[in-house]
Amino acid sequence: MNFYALVLLIxxxxxxxxxxxxxLDAGYVRVSWLNWLxxxxxxxxxxxxxxxYFALHYLFRTLSTTLAVRAGWRQWxxxxxxxxxxxxxxxxxxxxxxxxxxxxxxxxxxxxxxSDTPLINxxxxxxxxxxxxxxxxxxxxxxxxxxxxxxxxxxxxxxxAQLQLxxxxxxxxxxxxxNLRKKTPHHPFVLKLLQQVYTRLNDWQKMSEILPxxxxxKVLKDDEVEKLELETWLNLLRQACDEALRARKGEFNSEPxxxxxxxxxxxxxxxxxxIYAYASQLMRLGAGGQAETLLRKALKQHWSxxxxxxxxxxxxxxVAEQLLAAEHWLKERxxxxxxxxxxxxxxxxxxxxxxxxxxxxASLKLKRRRETYxxxxxxxxxxxxxxxxxxYFIQALHDSAKxxxxxxxxxxxxxx
Length: 416
Prior knowledge:
Largest sheet: 2 strands, antiparallel
Number of helices: 20
Mean pLDDT: 90
Radius of gyration: 48 Å
Number of strands: 2
Low-confidence stretches: none
Structural class: mainly alpha
Distance between the termini: 151 Å
Shape: rod-shaped
Helix content: over 70%
């Protein structure tokens, strides 16, 4: 049977049944409230109740639809703001990458509140403002980042330290970094920024304290750490000597300088450049005897041209023994130009002029060095041999300036 035919049949049956019931007895309903009185039969009252039910249902449905529309409107507006914030964030980051600081700040700061990444928006805005020279505005963005993004302390602190470093606010930057160190003691980038601050503050003592961590956490490349370590200890030696010279009371005190040397890593104490620096600072303090002993021991273990050069310039406690020690080395290194130059200088200290001349000439035959020319020229001038002295001076100048070989007029003295 067709569905609609069945519904029609059932409706007709219900209608017939209702007609029968109405005809059987219409009934009576009376409703009284305050001054109101309503009287009707049961069937009309029943019909009114059904009508009231449908009216109430329609009313609630209309209200629900209206509220849903409003909620949908709010949701649409929210999505639209969110979408626009994401687009502006991307646009701001592109401007930031291109160095368009003004546009970057505009888009990033304007979309920060609706963005998924407010921390990034505020931090990048702070850096853009700083690039524009607006330090107060930059600090304001950092404060907003701190207020709006709980848990971003380290990122905010690192950015703040970078900005302070860029502005040259070294003391403030150091304070920020030390606070960060309390929260993240081994943070590689914090360590790297600390290294930069200590370098600019010339605080080599503190630098020496973080060197093990710079190496351990791979903050710098191995060769960079080695270079920094060498620079650090050389500066510590120089600073110790400077302080001793400033605090001079009668005799120089080399104890602070020796203390730095004793604290130095063992591998550095074998480095010729470090030994050279230590001996040079001892010479500044008038401790030539100590410097001579240091160099003699070092040369016995590891021969070095820069150390033998310095050895020839030092006045040890006993210059005669110093000359004998150098002559002993000559047996093993007869063709060492640097050693021969040092021997010439030590011979001068022992007032052995002819011997000094022989050593300088022997050194020149092996290697033409400006220093050797000058030493020889100075010696010959003192020995009343001005013409020979001048020739060595001229040769030294010639070699220094790397002049080309060109014809020149003959000397009148020679012609005569």
